[in-house]
Amino acid sequence: MADSRRMVDALVRSRGGGLASGAALGGLALIGGLAFRALRGAEPPAPGKGGPDFTAVAEDEARLMLRAMVAATSADGLVDAAERRRLQAAVSEAGLDADGQSWLERELESPADVDEIAERVTAPDAAARIYAAARLAIDPDTLQERQFLKMLAEALDLPADAANRIERDVAA
């Protein structure tokens, strides 16, 4: 798929309300900020003042974020009408070509499992970003979605306090 970063940005922004509506810098910046706070327990310094550029995510990591987001969306075995509308809005906003749309459909038909996602993550910062992306993709209102997030955090070796901080920040 050509540009997973645009799709991740669009999916986070399509979430609407709360934290995502304030994502003026985009979805990747929001994900990066959540991950930074989760691991360090502090606000990141502002960009341009020695702060990291959270939008500088490699295409491979953005694709993995996207796979985690799709897997989270599919965790309860059903992509409901609201989730489908969000995905379609994000596809449209990101300007995905036919190949990108086909990739997304294949992911929805056969989403990655937590081990498949986690085996590609080697750094704690990346683990926190992948988890934050998956959490932003859903409102975990079913047992299966909550279980998926728990299993993902464990597979990523994400410390429980970091996962809890992400949950608190997203739910706020």
Question: How does this structure look, described?
Answer:
There is one protein chain. The protein is mainly α and about 170 residues long. It has one domain (about 5-170): TerB-like (Orthogonal Bundle), CATH 1.10.3680. About 65% of the residues lie in helices and about 0% in strands. The chain is built from ten helices and no strands. It has helices at about 5-15, 20, 25-40, 60-75, 80-95, 100-110, 115-120, 125-135, 145-155, 160-170. Helix 1 (about 5-15) packs across helix 4 (about 60-75), helix 3 (about 25-40) crosses helix 10 (about 160-170) and helix 8 runs parallel beside helix 10. The longest helix has 15 residues, at about 60-75. The termini are far apart. The model has no long low-confidence stretch (mean pLDDT about 85). It holds the Pfam family DUF533. InterPro entries: TerB-like (IPR029024), YebE (IPR007486). Keywords: Membrane, Transmembrane, Transmembrane helix.
